[in-house]
C-alpha cells in the first residue's frame, strides 16, 4: 500500500512514460500503466524500478509489466516484465513518479488546518490549547492531543491514542493505543534528492507512515514517510527520545530503540530487537530478529538473527571485547 492520500493522475500510455525518459519506443504495444510501485507491490498494470543487485530475488518475482533498470540488472527480471534501460534508475524513477503524483514533491504547511474547536472532532477528542486539524483527518475514541499540536491533512488516528504537545502529524496512519510524545514530526517527506550544481532534484514521497498498536514514540523524534513504499513501526515497539527513522524503514514488533539512534532509508529491522543509544544503521540493510546492537555502534552490513554486535563497524560482542582489551 502506497500513500492512499495522494491523487494518482494515471493511467498513462507507456509511450508517454518513454517520452518522459527520452527513450524511443521500440515496441508495438501501448499498454496503459495505472501506477508506479516498488518491486514487491507492483502488479501487471504498474511500472516499477530495480536499481541494485541487492534486490535481485525480489526482482525475479515482480509482477510489473515494465521496470526501469540498468543494462547490468535487466536479465534478473521475469519474462512478464519488460526492462526500460536507463543510465540513472533513481532519477528516471523520480521523473515517472512525478508524472503520476505531481503533488508529492513539496511539503508546505497545511493551509486547510483550523482550530479543532471549530470542527466536529471537538466532541470526541480531549485537546489542549491551539490544536489545529487539517482536511481528511479521522480520530478515534478516547484520544488526547496536547497544546500547540497540528494534525495536518491526511491522518488517521485510532482509539485510545495520546499525542503530545508541539507535535506535527501528516500522511500517517496511527493504530490503537499509540503514544506520541512532545515535539515529534511524523509523516513529512524524507531526505531524498539528487545533488546537482545548478539545482538539486527532489525525489517524490508517495508513501505513508504506519505506527501499529501499543507503540510509543519518544520526544523530539522524526519519522519520515516512505518514497515508493511505506515507513512502518511494528506493534509494541518503543522509541526513546530524539530518534530519526528515515523513509521506507520497516521496524518489527516488540523492538526497543534507545535515544539518538538514526536508521537510514529502506533498512528493515526485525522483531524483538534492542538498539543502544546513539547507534547508527546504514541504509538498505536487514537486521534480523532477536538482535542486540550496543550503544554507539555503526551498522554497515546485514546482521543475522540472534546476533549481539557492538562497535564500528559493528561486529560480534565477543570479537569487539577481544579486540578492545
Show the helix and strand layout.
Layout (H helix, E strand, L loop, with lengths): L11 E2 H7 L11 E2 L1 E2 L9 E4 L6 H4 L6 E4 L12 E4 L3 H12 L13 E2 L9 E3 L4 E2 L3 E3 L3 E3 L4 E2 L3 E3 L4 E2 L4 E2 L2 E3 L4 E2 L4 E2 L6 E2 L6 E2 L6 E3 L4 E2 L4 E2 L7 E3 L4 E2 L4 E2 L4 E2 L4 E2 L4 E2 L4 E2 L4 E2 L4 E2 L4 E2 L4 E2 L4 E2 L8 E3 L4 E2 H7 L2
Parallel strand pairs: 3-4, 4-5, 5-6, 8-11, 9-12, 10-13, 11-14, 12-15, 13-16, 14-17, 15-18, 16-21, 17-22, 18-23, 21-24, 22-25, 23-26, 24-27, 25-28, 26-29, 27-30, 28-31, 29-32, 30-33, 31-34, 32-35, 34-36
Antiparallel strand pairs: 1-2, 7-9, 19-20, 36-37
E-strand count: 37
Strand content: 25-35%
Low-confidence stretches: none
Spatial extent as radius of gyration: 21 Å
Instruction: Determine the mean pLDDT.
Output: 92
Q: Indicate the overall shape.
A: globular
Distance between the termini: 49 Å
Q: At the first level of CATH, what is the class of the largest domain?
A: Mainly Beta
Main sheet: strand order: 8-11-14-17-22-25-28-31-34-36-37
Number of domains: 2
Please state the structural category. Answer: mainly beta
Architecture per CATH nomenclature, i.e. the level-2 architecture of the largest domain? 3 Solenoid
- What summary fits the major beta sheet? 11 strands, mixed
Helix share bin: under 10%
What would you note in describing this structure?
It is a single chain. The protein is mainly beta and 325 residues long. The protein folds into 2 domains: 12-100, 3-Layer(aba) Sandwich (Udp-n-acetylmuramoylalanyl-d-glutamate--2,6- Diaminopimelate Ligase, Chain: A, domain 1), CATH 3.40.1390; 114-323, Hexapeptide repeat proteins (UDP N-Acetylglucosamine Acyltransferase, domain 1), CATH 2.160.10. 9% of the residues lie in helices and 27% in strands. The protein has an 11-stranded mixed β-sheet with strand order 8-11-14-17-22-25-28-31-34-36-37. Strands 7-9-12-15-18-23-26-29-32-35 form a 10-stranded mixed β-sheet, with no helix packed on it. Strand 19 and strand 20 form a beta hairpin. The relative contact order is 0.08. The model has no long low-confidence stretch (mean pLDDT 92).
Amino acid at each position: 500500500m502506497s500513500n492512499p492520500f495522494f491523487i494518482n493522475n494515471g493511467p498513462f500510455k507507456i509511450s508517454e512514460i518513454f517520452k518522459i525518459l527520452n527513450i524511443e519506443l521500440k515496441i508495438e504495444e501501448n499498454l496503459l500503466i495505472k501506477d508506479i510501485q516498488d518491486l514487491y507491490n507492483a502488479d501487471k498494470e504498474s511500472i516499477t524500478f530495480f536499481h541494485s543487485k541487492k534486490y535481485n530475488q525480489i526482482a525475479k518475482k515482480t509482477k510489473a509489466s515494465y521496470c526501469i533498470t540498468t543494462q547490468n540488472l535487466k536479465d534478473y527480471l521475469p519474462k512478464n516484465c519488460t526492462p526500460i534501460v536507463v543510465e540513472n534508475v533513481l532519477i528516471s524513477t523520480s521523473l515517472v513518479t512525478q508524472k503520476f503524483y505531481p503533488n508529492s514533491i513539496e511539503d508546505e504547511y497545511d493551509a486547510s488546518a483550523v482550530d479543532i474547536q471549530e470542527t466536529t472532532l471537538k466532541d470526541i477528542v480531549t485537546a489542549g490549547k491551539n490544536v489545529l486539524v487539517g482536511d481528511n483527518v479521522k480520530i478515534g475514541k478516547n484520544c488526547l492531543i496536547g497544546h500547540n499540536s497540528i494534525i495536518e491533512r491526511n491522518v488517521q488516528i485510532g482509539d485510545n491514542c495520546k499525542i503530545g504537545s508541539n507535535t506535527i502529524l501528516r500522511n500517517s496512519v496511527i493504530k490503537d493505543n499509540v503514544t506520541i510524545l512532545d515535539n515529534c514530526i511524523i509523516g513529512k517527506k524524507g531526505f531524498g534528492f539528487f545533488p546537482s550544481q545548478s539545482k538539486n532534484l527532489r525525489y517524490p514521497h508517495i508513501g505513508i507512515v504506519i505506527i501499529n498498536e501499543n507503540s510509543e514514540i519518544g520526544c523530539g523524534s522524526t519519522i519520515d514517510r516512505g518514497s515508493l513504499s511505506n515507513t512502518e513501526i511494528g506493534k509494541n515497539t518503543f522509541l526513546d527520545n530524539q530518534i530519526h527513522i528515515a523513509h521506507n524503514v520497516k521496524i518489527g514488533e516488540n523492538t526497543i530503540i534507545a535515544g539518538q539512534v538514526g536508521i537510514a532509508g529502506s533498512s528493515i529491522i526485525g522483531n524483538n530487537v534492542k538498539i543502544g543509544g546513539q547507534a547508527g544503521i546504514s541504509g538498505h540493510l536487514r537486521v534480523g530478529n532477536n538482535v542486540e546492537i550496543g550503544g554507539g555502534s555503526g551498522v554497515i552490513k546485514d546482521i543475522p538473527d540472534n546476533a549481539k554486535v557492538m562497535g564500528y563497524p559493528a561486529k560480534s560482542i565477543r570479537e569487539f571485547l577481544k579486540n578492545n582489551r
